[in-house]
Amino acid sequence: MAAAQSHLNAALRYTGDPALDTVLWLPESQPEARIRYAADSPLQFGDLRLPHRPPPPGGYPVAVFVHGGGWQRGDKRLMLGSAKLRHWQAAGYAVASLNYRLVPDATVEQQAADVASAVAYLKANAGGLGFDARRIALVGHSAGGPAHRGRWP
Predict the structure, then answer these.
(1) Smallest Cα–Cα separation from 32: which of 112, 100, 89?
(2) What is the pTM (predicted TM-score) of this model?
(3) CA dist., res. 93 & res. 88, Å (int)
(4) Which residue has the higher pLDDT, 49 or 68?
(5) How many whole angstroms from its chain centre is CA 14?
(6) Is the confidence at residue 100, as pLDDT, over 60?
(7) Per-residue pLDDT at 27 exceeds 50
(8) Which letter does DSSP use for residue 1 in this model?
């Protein structure tokens, strides 16, 4: 994680003015980290984007975004370019945008298990990633809403 943090620190641009530092974002196409939360499928991974300001004591809160798509399509990249991503980062949240297994290769229950596995991964690795494991919010749209209601680690 030290190398990732070093890369992140080198990429951040701080002006010293908190109002400006809140809105200076890295290009959205370049996540700070890619997380692989399980190994059952190549779809079990996500992108991590951090707010572009120093972390608060205890680490960043995290918004975990679960994409929609009728349980059978969609991608974590639906977060790119969204007002949600910009809003959460400006509010000081790290954002983890997840992919998960899709129907018909997985059941809806397995999709919920994928989201639970991702949250468990984030909680277990919070210190190394700069998160506050006690401050994790799940958000999603369409199928991404129910996908995270099935299990909670």
Answers:
(1) 89
(2) 0.74
(3) 5
(4) 49
(5) 22
(6) yes
(7) no
(8) -
Two tokens at 146?
């129910």
According to the model, what pLDDT value does residue 86 have?
84
Instruction: Give CA–CA dist 132/125, Å, rounded.
Output: 10
Token pair listed for 110: 């397995």
Residues 6+ apart with CB under 8 A from 44: 36, 37, 38, 99, 100, 101, 114, 117, 118
Whether the per-residue pLDDT at 125 is higher than 90: the answer is yes
User: In terms of Cα–Cα distance, which of 106, 93, 9, 29 is closest to 59?
Assistant: 93
How far apart, in whole angstroms, are the C-alpha atoms of residue 71 and residue 111? 8
Q: Are 96 and 62 in contact (CB under 8 A)?
A: yes
- Residue 123 pLDDT greater than 90, yes or no: yes
> What type of residue sits at position 121?
Y
Q: What share of the chain is helix, strand, coil (3-state, %, to 5)?
A: 35, 20, 45
Q: Is the peptide bond before 51 cis (omega within 30 degrees of 0)?
A: no
